[in-house]
Amino acid sequence: MKAAVVYEAGKPPVFADFEAPAAKAGEELITVKAAALTHFTKARASGAHYSASASLPAIAGSDGVGVTQDGRRVYFILPGAPFGAMAEVTRVRAGHCIPVPEGIDDIAAAALANPGMSAWAALVHRAQLKQGDTVIINGATGIAGRLAVQLAKHLGAGKVIATARDEAALASVKALGADVVIPMHLDGTGPDGSSRFEEAIREQCKEGVDVVVDYLWGKSAQTIIAAVAKTVEDARPVRFVQVGSSSGADITLPSAALRSSAIVLMGSGIKSVPLPDLLAAVGHVFAAAVPANLRIATRVLPLSDVQTAWDHDGGKARVVFVPT
């Protein structure tokens, strides 16, 4: 069969022949219809993600949409190594599949699943979002951040504050439901030497913040933690959920920021959220897709283009590969 095969860690997959899988006991053999190119898939393929297998060659792709041998259309995650989602056929544990509703096509389901999973798990399983909560989405102009804004509103957030570097892109996020947008490049410093970005966050914190979903880490996350520590009063808990680190893997965290606030730091992802809950999160997102009018731009490519498309940023659109 044809597949996107990783021969060397850190190098793009190659469209090549690979031996087709045979299902073992407790597994489903799936004819793949669509598989999205995500940061998670790239990180696992490079060996950088903590859940990656070191054995090569292997097929890229951590999740996708396909049809089982008995005709069920399913979303699946974490195929059994060395097989992956970016192939004509893959094998997956039966418990790693959930049905795809009729109202969502293969491309939309593949595109929505990963960012929807991360946003739902962060908001519901980790932050335990409550009706009326004020939520900051740090890094709201990326694919996952945009979906997190939409889901936060759908789940009952009273106020959603979106932050990002791209001020023009933030305007489009406001159209998705963000109540307040704060660009990170605000120039100058305030009277106490803090950045204008921190001042803008602190101004919002004066009215109370309940949840932060952080897709960036790095300097912006550090600034938000400092603003929360300096501003939120009355030991009001702020649930800070760390999801991604596109702005850096490390921050400087002053101990006083923890002692002087009721901020609760936690992560959200594989191993911090049980896999059954992550799969359930995808199911909830699929169920919400139509009533919440969830929107995610897609760019559909044949799997044969995987090598050239692998390292190209899809911009605000999610690249979805379809076997040919």
Characterise the protein shown here.
The structure is a single chain. The model has no long low-confidence stretch (mean pLDDT 91). Helix 2 crosses helix 8 and helix 5 packs across helix 6. The protein has 324 residues and is α/β, with parallel strands linked by helices. The radius of gyration is 20 Å and the shape is elongated. The longest helix has 21 residues. The protein is built from nine helices and 16 strands. The chain has two domains: 131 residues, Medium-chain alcohol dehydrogenases, catalytic domain (Quinone Oxidoreductase, Chain A, domain 1, Alpha-Beta Complex), CATH 3.90.180; 154 residues, Quinone Oxidoreductase, Chain A, domain 1 (Alpha-Beta Complex), CATH 3.90.180. The strands form three sheets. Strands 3, 5, 6, 7, 8, 15 and 16 form a seven-stranded mixed beta sheet that branches.
Blueprint (SSEs and pairs):
Layout lengths: L1 E5 L7 E4 L9 E10 L2 H8 L11 E2 L3 E6 L4 E5 L11 E5 L3 E3 L6 H21 L7 E5 L4 H12 L4 E6 L2 H9 L4 E4 L12 H10 L5 E4 L3 H14 L6 E5 L12 H5 L3 E5 L7 H15 L7 E6 L3 H4 L7 E6 L2
Parallel strand pairs: 9-10, 9-12, 10-11, 12-13, 13-14, 15-16
Antiparallel strand pairs: 1-2, 1-4, 3-5, 3-7, 3-16, 5-6, 6-8
Helix pairs in contact: 2-3, 2-8, 5-6
How is the CATH topology of the largest domain named? Answer: Quinone Oxidoreductase, Chain A, domain 1
CATH architecture assignment of the largest domain: Alpha-Beta Complex
User: Main sheet, how many strands, which sense, barrel?
Assistant: 7 strands, mixed
Approximately how much beta-strand content do the residues carry?
25-35%
- Secondary-structure element pattern, one letter each: EEEHEEEEEHEHEHEHEHEHEHEHE
Inertia-based shape: elongated
| Beta-strand segment tally | 16
Number of helices: 9
Roughly how many Å is the radius of gyration?
20 Å
Spans of at least 5 consecutive residues whose pLDDT stays below 50 are none
Mean pLDDT: 91
Report the helical percentage. 25-40%
CATH class of the largest domain: Alpha Beta
Q: Structural class from helices and strands?
A: alpha/beta
- Cα separation of the termini: 11 Å
When the domains are counted, the total is: 2
Superfamily (CATH H level) name of the largest domain? Medium-chain alcohol dehydrogenases, catalytic domain
